[in-house]
Amino acid sequence: MNHFFVFFKKELVEYARTYKLLIMLVVFTIFGITNPLIAKLTPELLASFMPEGMSVTIPEPTALDAWAQFFKNTQQMGMIVLVLVFSGVVSTEVSRGTLINLLTKGLSRQAVILAKYSAMLFVWSLSVVLSATLTWVYTLYLFPHDQVTVGYLLFAISCMWLFGAFLLASLLSSATLVKGNYGSLLLTGLMLVFLMLVNIIPNAQEYNPISLASMNMELVAGKVDPSFVYTAVGITGLASLGLIALALLVFGKKRM
What's the pLDDT tens digit per position in 197-223? Predict the structure, then answer.
């Protein structure tokens, strides 16, 4: 356990030194500030680009539009940044030989994997909380009389967070299976494509982990009952644990 905390601290320090932590926090801070602002200004921008003489009825923006922007930015750009920032989670240290030195000095391989995943998960959690908090504050300011159901919103954010945790588990297990950053990115990308293809089947959506990142606004707006994704939540959690177990198994036998 002592090895875990030492390496966990080392990972966080490394993220700070290599600007990974800064990149994540800056990107999600920008998202948090601009989500409600974009929602508020979009109708005016659309109206200004309309040809002269053309009249189109544009609905007034609401708090739901601000949260729709939050989920859109986090699901698309946010998760792309997440994967790119942590793509070299194992291969970089293996290529530099830093892990070999630590392992020969008695560092547990299991501690390496668990600490790396925990550190990535910590940064991801901090980024989501930061962005959601800023979005909440600015939404209250710009849409003071139009708010959303808190319970549904928190559940939708939690679902998206869980999918990000699953994505990190996939990235970590992929990094132990192949060499180089591109290999882990490729495997993770193929996994996402597969889940998207499976999601085309209507009956598969309630079991598919990607539903946690694609049905957020339906949950917030109350169009979909939370119970619809309970199975997907369970499957995603178990799949994440399975991927971490796979990473532990492969890395434990991996030759450096």
Answer: 998 988 888 999 999 999 999 999 889
Q: What percent of the chain clears pLDDT 70, i.e. is strictly above it? A: 89
The C-alpha torsion from 80 through 83 and 86 to 92, rounded to 10°, is -110
Q: Quote the CA–CA distance of 205 and 212 in Å, as a whole number.
A: 10
pTM reported for the whole predicted model: 0.91
Q: What is the pLDDT of residues 177-192, one digit of tens each?
A: 887 777 888 899 999 9
Which burial class, exposed, middle or buried, applies to 3 when counting CB atoms under 10 A from its CB (0-12, 13-18, 19+)?
middle
Q: What angle do CA 224, 169, 131 make, to 5 degrees?
A: 55
Q: How many separate helices (H) and strands (E) can be counted in the chain? A: 11, 0
Q: Return the biggest CA–CA distance within the chain.
A: 75
How far is Cα of residue 7 from the mean position of the Cα atoms in its chain?
Answer: 23
pLDDT, residue 58, reads 66
How many whole angstroms separate alpha carbon 101 and alpha carbon 240?
29
CA distance 224 to 226: 6
Amino acid residing at 209 = P
Coil vs helix vs strand at 86: coil
- State both tokens at 156: 């939708």
What burial class does residue 144 get, using C-beta atoms within 10 Å of its C-beta: 0-12 exposed, 13-18 middle, 19+ buried? exposed
